[in-house]
Give the backbone structure.
Amino acid sequence: MDNKKVIKSFKDLDVYQNAYKVSIIVALQILPKLPNSEKYDLINQLSRSSKAVPRLIAEGFAKKHQKFGFQKYLDDAMAEANETIVGLEHSRDIYKIDEGLCITLLDNYDKIARQLFRLSEAWDVFKNKRRMTTPHDDTGSETVKHKPSAYS
Protein backbone atom coordinates (compact mmCIF):
# COMPACT_ATOMS: atom_id res chain seq x y z
CA MET A 1 0.00 0.00 0.00
CA ASP A 2 1.40 3.38 -1.02
CA ASN A 3 0.92 6.10 1.62
CA LYS A 4 2.10 8.92 -0.62
CA LYS A 5 -0.42 11.71 -0.98
CA VAL A 6 -0.89 13.82 -4.06
CA ILE A 7 0.41 17.38 -3.69
CA LYS A 8 -1.79 19.72 -5.71
CA SER A 9 -1.17 22.88 -3.70
CA PHE A 10 1.34 24.25 -1.22
CA LYS A 11 -1.42 23.77 1.36
CA ASP A 12 -1.05 20.00 0.90
CA LEU A 13 2.53 20.12 2.21
CA ASP A 14 2.84 19.05 5.86
CA VAL A 15 5.68 21.54 6.35
CA TYR A 16 3.45 24.40 5.18
CA GLN A 17 0.64 23.33 7.52
CA ASN A 18 3.06 23.08 10.46
CA ALA A 19 4.73 26.42 9.71
CA TYR A 20 1.41 28.23 9.32
CA LYS A 21 0.03 26.79 12.57
CA VAL A 22 3.04 27.79 14.68
CA SER A 23 3.29 31.25 13.07
CA ILE A 24 -0.22 31.93 14.39
CA ILE A 25 0.78 30.77 17.87
CA VAL A 26 3.84 33.05 17.84
CA ALA A 27 1.68 36.01 16.76
CA LEU A 28 -1.04 35.41 19.34
CA GLN A 29 0.83 34.00 22.33
CA ILE A 30 4.45 35.21 22.24
CA LEU A 31 4.59 38.64 20.57
CA PRO A 32 1.99 40.32 22.84
CA LYS A 33 4.01 39.28 25.93
CA LEU A 34 7.21 40.99 24.80
CA PRO A 35 7.94 44.46 26.19
CA ASN A 36 7.20 47.58 24.11
CA SER A 37 10.92 48.40 24.23
CA GLU A 38 11.36 45.50 21.76
CA LYS A 39 8.73 46.82 19.32
CA TYR A 40 11.26 47.76 16.63
CA ASP A 41 13.68 44.91 17.27
CA LEU A 42 12.70 41.50 18.63
CA ILE A 43 8.93 41.88 18.14
CA ASN A 44 9.32 43.12 14.59
CA GLN A 45 11.92 40.51 13.63
CA LEU A 46 10.18 37.57 15.28
CA SER A 47 6.90 38.59 13.67
CA ARG A 48 8.49 38.82 10.24
CA SER A 49 10.55 35.62 10.43
CA SER A 50 7.75 33.43 11.80
CA LYS A 51 5.31 34.66 9.12
CA ALA A 52 7.93 34.37 6.37
CA VAL A 53 8.30 30.58 6.65
CA PRO A 54 4.83 29.61 5.31
CA ARG A 55 4.86 32.55 2.88
CA LEU A 56 8.15 31.42 1.33
CA ILE A 57 6.92 27.84 1.01
CA ALA A 58 3.78 29.10 -0.78
CA GLU A 59 5.71 31.44 -3.06
CA GLY A 60 8.32 28.83 -3.87
CA PHE A 61 5.70 26.24 -4.75
CA ALA A 62 4.39 28.64 -7.39
CA LYS A 63 7.88 28.70 -8.93
CA LYS A 64 8.45 24.94 -8.85
CA HIS A 65 8.73 24.87 -12.65
CA GLN A 66 11.87 27.03 -12.53
CA LYS A 67 15.22 25.27 -12.50
CA PHE A 68 16.19 26.40 -8.99
CA GLY A 69 13.08 28.38 -8.01
CA PHE A 70 11.47 26.12 -5.43
CA GLN A 71 14.74 25.16 -3.75
CA LYS A 72 15.82 28.78 -3.33
CA TYR A 73 12.58 29.51 -1.50
CA LEU A 74 12.92 26.37 0.62
CA ASP A 75 16.44 27.48 1.59
CA ASP A 76 15.13 30.95 2.45
CA ALA A 77 12.28 29.42 4.49
CA MET A 78 14.82 27.30 6.39
CA ALA A 79 16.85 30.44 7.14
CA GLU A 80 13.73 32.19 8.44
CA ALA A 81 12.86 29.15 10.59
CA ASN A 82 16.36 29.30 12.09
CA GLU A 83 15.98 33.04 12.67
CA THR A 84 12.66 32.37 14.41
CA ILE A 85 14.39 29.84 16.65
CA VAL A 86 16.86 32.50 17.78
CA GLY A 87 14.04 35.00 18.39
CA LEU A 88 12.13 32.48 20.47
CA GLU A 89 15.27 31.65 22.47
CA HIS A 90 15.75 35.38 23.15
CA SER A 91 12.11 35.68 24.21
CA ARG A 92 12.51 32.77 26.60
CA ASP A 93 15.97 33.57 27.96
CA ILE A 94 15.91 37.38 28.18
CA TYR A 95 12.24 38.08 28.93
CA LYS A 96 11.26 34.75 30.54
CA ILE A 97 8.26 34.42 28.21
CA ASP A 98 6.26 31.22 28.78
CA GLU A 99 9.14 28.74 28.89
CA GLY A 100 6.99 25.67 28.20
CA LEU A 101 5.37 27.26 25.16
CA CYS A 102 8.74 28.48 23.87
CA ILE A 103 10.20 24.99 24.18
CA THR A 104 7.24 23.55 22.25
CA LEU A 105 7.60 26.20 19.53
CA LEU A 106 11.37 25.68 19.36
CA ASP A 107 10.81 21.95 18.85
CA ASN A 108 8.27 22.73 16.13
CA TYR A 109 10.59 25.13 14.29
CA ASP A 110 13.43 22.63 14.53
CA LYS A 111 11.14 20.01 12.97
CA ILE A 112 10.08 22.49 10.27
CA ALA A 113 13.72 23.22 9.40
CA ARG A 114 14.38 19.48 9.05
CA GLN A 115 11.22 19.03 6.94
CA LEU A 116 12.34 21.87 4.67
CA PHE A 117 15.77 20.28 4.27
CA ARG A 118 14.28 16.88 3.39
CA LEU A 119 11.78 18.47 0.99
CA SER A 120 14.60 20.34 -0.72
CA GLU A 121 16.60 17.12 -1.11
CA ALA A 122 13.56 15.20 -2.40
CA TRP A 123 12.70 18.01 -4.83
CA ASP A 124 16.26 17.94 -6.19
CA VAL A 125 15.96 14.20 -6.89
CA PHE A 126 12.50 14.66 -8.45
CA LYS A 127 13.65 17.61 -10.57
CA ASN A 128 16.64 15.64 -11.86
CA LYS A 129 14.44 12.62 -12.68
CA ARG A 130 12.10 14.86 -14.68
CA ARG A 131 15.05 16.28 -16.60
CA MET A 132 16.07 12.73 -17.55
CA THR A 133 12.72 11.87 -19.15
CA THR A 134 11.02 12.87 -22.39
CA PRO A 135 7.59 12.09 -23.80
CA HIS A 136 7.59 8.74 -25.59
CA ASP A 137 4.45 9.04 -27.70
CA ASP A 138 1.02 10.67 -27.75
CA THR A 139 -0.16 8.61 -24.78
CA GLY A 140 1.71 10.87 -22.38
CA SER A 141 3.93 8.08 -21.14
CA GLU A 142 7.57 8.82 -20.58
CA THR A 143 10.78 7.07 -21.37
CA VAL A 144 14.19 7.62 -19.87
CA LYS A 145 16.74 9.44 -22.01
CA HIS A 146 19.99 7.60 -22.14
CA LYS A 147 23.04 9.70 -21.49
CA PRO A 148 25.82 9.14 -23.98
CA SER A 149 28.60 7.18 -22.38
CA ALA A 150 32.27 7.04 -23.20
CA TYR A 151 31.55 3.77 -25.05
CA SER A 152 28.72 5.06 -27.29
Remarks:
- The chain has one domain: 10-144.
